[in-house]
Each structure stands twice: as C-alpha cells, then as structure tokens.
C-alpha cells in the first residue's frame, strides 16, 4: 500500500443532518484513522445542505485530529467579507483543521434563485476568493471603492490561509484553478481517462501562469468495499441503470468512475489513480442508491481504513 495517501470521507448517512448524526459519523471516521471529513453545499433540494460550515462547527467540538472540509463551498453566492469571517471562525473552533473546497455552482436554477448572472459566475468567484485571501493575509479589504475598507477578524489559525482546493468542471474552470496555483478537486463522476486530461489542463495552466503546479492531487470517488461478489454485481447493475449519463463519455461503464469491489480489488484500482494521475488525497463518497444498510456502509469504510487509514503524511 502507498503509505503517503490521504483518505477522507463524506458522511454515509444523510437521512438526518442533526448534530448527533453527523458527529457520530465524524467521530467514527476519526477513530478509524481517516484524515478528513467532508460536507458539500447544496440548496433547495429535499436533502439540501445549505450551511456546511455550521454543520462542521458541531463536528469540531467532538473531534480532535480529523480535518474538517467542504467539497463545494459556493463562493458565487457569498458576501466575501462574511465568508472570510465564517471560515476563520471554523478554523479557530477546530484549532486549524479546515480544508476549504470551493466551487462556483453549476445548477442554473440555484444561481438564478440567488440572482447570480450565470455568465458572470467565474468572474464573481475570482473576485470573492481574492477578497477572502487578502483579508486572511491581514490586508484592509472592501467590496468596492465606494465601501469602507476594513480588517477582518478573527484571522484563521492556519497561515497564510486554510488550504483551498477548487472543485471544477470544464476547461475554463480547470484553467482558472491552475492559474491560481490551487489544487483541483476532481468530481466523483469523471473517469480516470477524463481525469488525466483534466489534470493536464490544470497543470499546463499553472505553468503558463508561472506558478508552481500544486503537489496535492485530490479526487472524490464513489467507493464501496464488500467481499460479497453478488452484492457488488447488484450494486453495479443498479448504478448503471440509475446514473445520469450526462457526465460520462460514450461507452463508459460504472467501473470507469466508481470504485467497487473486494478490498484487494479496490486497493488495486486506487493504485491505478496513484500511478496515472499522482493521486495524493482520495475522498470516498457514499453510493447514492437505496437499499444499502448502515451496517454495510460501516463495514465498507472500515475495510478502507484498514487499507489506508491513518497512513497519510502531511503534504505542504
């Protein structure tokens, strides 16, 4: 096994977003040796998670070491001054354990509901992130020249700022992340061959901008481990029938974007990502299909922890 691979995880039970439920899962993940615990941001659906930082604040109080992270903190709908404050507060609460995965938001209806011009989302994203980073650097910041410049307090514990990873879709978004010299956080729905081309776009953009190519190579991946071959076969069939194929290239199968199988099979598949894209951080996401019991999920994440848990070494 590759001992410097960092393994993170999202909650496997979203039936309830109570503090008790999330905290129980985070504590269990920390006990198993997972490096990080991740929450998305999404709005207006029946299982919406509109305030990931608030939810992670509850987790901060019951954990000690595990990193607290967002897969897609949506900067396009944030006030940058308030967002800088809120992230700093969570970093203070957790004693410097925040990883801030940021995104623009891809759902047109969500952006329209927040009155965000879709064609401006990339520009708004860059503006918001720029103000936040300047604020964390201790500079006076303002929303524009007509507003009073202020210093933002508290400052984050992590200096000069919490780690920022950019969730991106499409060549323009990938290039934007590369030019900023920030890691690209890959979605769980793209195949390994697609990820190879995505990371190449990201790397070339960084080099053309004269910034260092990030050493951190993180991906999210739908992952499930079971030693029951019949269970795995059934899961693959279900996923194949239910998946929205708009994210996949023609001819791709479940095995091209999900990691399912026995512990040994999953380890071999993960090593392919390490070899071909230089994977450093894997965030295991739950399978979004009904019928998998909590017991099965716990067994799966326990298997993954036995393969890689608590083996990662800090990367700068």
Structure characterization notes:
- The protein has a single domain, classed as TIM Barrel (Alpha-Beta Barrel), CATH 3.20.20.30.
- Helices cover 42% and strands 14% of the residues.
- It has helices spanning 19-32, 52-60, 80-93, 108-113, 121-136, 170-179, 192-208, 229-242, 254-257, 263-277, 294-308; strands at residues 6-9, 36-39, 67-74, 98-103, 164-167, 184-185, 218-225, 258-261, 281-285.
- Helix 2 runs parallel beside helix 3 (80-93).
- The longest helix has 17 residues, at 192-208.
- It is globular and about 65 Å long.
Based on the model shown, name its key terms:
disordered C terminus; 316 residues; alpha/beta; 42% helix; 9-stranded parallel β-sheet; globular; TIM Barrel
Termini separation comes to 21 Å
Radius of gyration: 19 Å
Which stretches are poorly predicted, pLDDT < 50 over at least 5 residues?
311-316
Give the amount of beta strand, in percent: 5-15%
CATH hierarchy: architecture: Alpha-Beta Barrel
CATH class category:
Alpha Beta
According to CATH, what is the topology? TIM Barrel
Helix-strand sequence: EHEHEHEHHEHEHEHHEHEH
Largest sheet composition: 9 strands, parallel
- Side-by-side strand order of the widest sheet: 6-5-4-3-2-1-9-7-8
* CATH homolog superfamily: Luciferase-like domain
Average pLDDT works out at: 91
Q: What is the SS-derived class?
A: alpha/beta
How many domains?
1
């Amino acid at each position: 096994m590759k001992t410097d691979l960092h393994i993170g995880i999202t909650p496997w039970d979203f039936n309830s977003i109570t503090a008790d439920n999330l905290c129980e899962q985070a504590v269990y993940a920390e006990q198993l040796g997972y490096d990080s615990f991740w929450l998305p941001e999404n709005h207006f659906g029946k299982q919406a998670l509109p305030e990931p930082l608030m939810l992670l604040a509850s987790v901060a109080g019951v954990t000690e070491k595990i990193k607290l992270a967002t897969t897609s903190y949506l900067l396009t709908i944030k006030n940058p001054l308030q967002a800088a404050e809120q992230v700093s507060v969570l970093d203070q609460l957790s004693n410097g354990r925040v990883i801030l995965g940021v995104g623009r938001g891809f759902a047109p209806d969500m952006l329209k509901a927040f009155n965000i011009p879709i064609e401006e989302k990339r520009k708004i994203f860059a503006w918001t992130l720029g103000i936040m980073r300047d604020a964390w650097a201790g500079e006076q910041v303002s929303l524009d020249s007509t507003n009073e410049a202020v210093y933002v307090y508290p400052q984050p514990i992590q200096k000069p700022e919490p780690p920022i990873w950019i969730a991106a879709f499409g060549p323009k978004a990938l290039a934007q992340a590369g030019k900023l010299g920030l890691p690209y956080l890959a979605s769980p729905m793209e195949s390994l061959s697609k990820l190879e081309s995505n990371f190449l776009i990201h790397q070339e953009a960084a080099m053309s901008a004269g910034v260092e190519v990030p050493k951190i190579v993180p991906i999210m991946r739908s992952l499930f481990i079971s030693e029951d071959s019949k269970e795995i076969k059934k899961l693959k069939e279900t996923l194949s029938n239910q998946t929205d194929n708009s994210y996949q290239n023609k001819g791709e199968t479940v095995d091209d974007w999900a990691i399912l199988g026995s512990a040994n099979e999953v380890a071999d598949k993960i090593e392919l990502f390490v070899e071909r894209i230089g994977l450093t951080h894997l965030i295991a996401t739950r399978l979004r299909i009904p019928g998998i019991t909590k017991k099965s999920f716990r067994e799966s994440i326990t298997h993954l922890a036995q393969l890689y848990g608590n083996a990662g070494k800090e990367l700068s």
